[in-house]
What we know:
The protein is an alpha/beta fold. It has a single domain (4-160), classed as 3-Layer(aba) Sandwich (Rossmann fold), CATH 3.40.50.300. 29% of the residues lie in helices and 21% in strands. The protein is built from 4 helices and 6 strands; from the N terminus they run βαββαβαββα. Strands 2-3-1-4-5-6 form a 6-stranded mixed β-sheet, sandwiched between helices. The radius of gyration is 14 Å and the shape is globular. The two termini are 13 Å apart. Bound molecules: guanosine-5'-diphosphate and magnesium ion (MG). Magnesium ion binds at residues 15-16, 28, 37, 58. The site of magnesium ion has 5 residues, from helix 1. GTPase that plays an essential role in the late steps of ribosome biogenesis. This is GTPase Der. Belongs to the TRAFAC class TrmE-Era-EngA-EngB-Septin-like GTPase superfamily. EngA (Der) GTPase family. GTP 1 binds at residues 9-16, 56-60, 119-122.
Amino acid sequence: MGNIVAIVGRPNVGKSTLFNRLTKSRKAIVNEVSGTTRDRQYGKVEWCGKEFSVIDTGGWVVNSEDIFEEEINKQVALAIDEADVILFVVDVMTGTTNLDDHVAEILRKSKKPIFLIANKTDTNELQYNAAEFYRLGLGDPWCISAINGFGTGDLLDEVIAKF
Ligand code: GDP
Ligand code: MG
């Protein structure tokens, strides 16, 4: 299947929006309500003559944080298993939550290349908020806006450099 990039993170951080931007599709369902992507979505991305597959994870209906934690454990384990690169998405507008800490802890133990994605950086000012993500112990946050495209080209340059 070639190079695989998995997008992980808690609900509503913008994983599906990022998937749609990278694949230039509207395949993944984006919704104001958390957890609306039902299944793992697979798409193809072409960047600078390189092709890779991208997986949008996190498609389940969430009623409680407990149920969600079990699901995210499964999805993150699968991503670590099958992906060559992991995009861990967090939200600069809301900051970190316990679930972000939980996912970060699992990812820190993995040997796969991980990009910490500070999504929803729609304005330059919001870049300052990303400083709090250093705490997650996953290196520099990559500020992007999946909605307006800020930073996504630079991110793709770095992602394909890992292949
Ligand atoms: P997911 O649950 O992680 O897949 O998140 P979604 O992609 O479904 O997005 C959840 C909400 O965040 C939707 O209302 C999106 O429009 C919004 N969103 C996603 N990316 C951005 C972004 O870069 N900026 C802003 N302002 N909102 C975003
Ligand atoms: Mg989604």
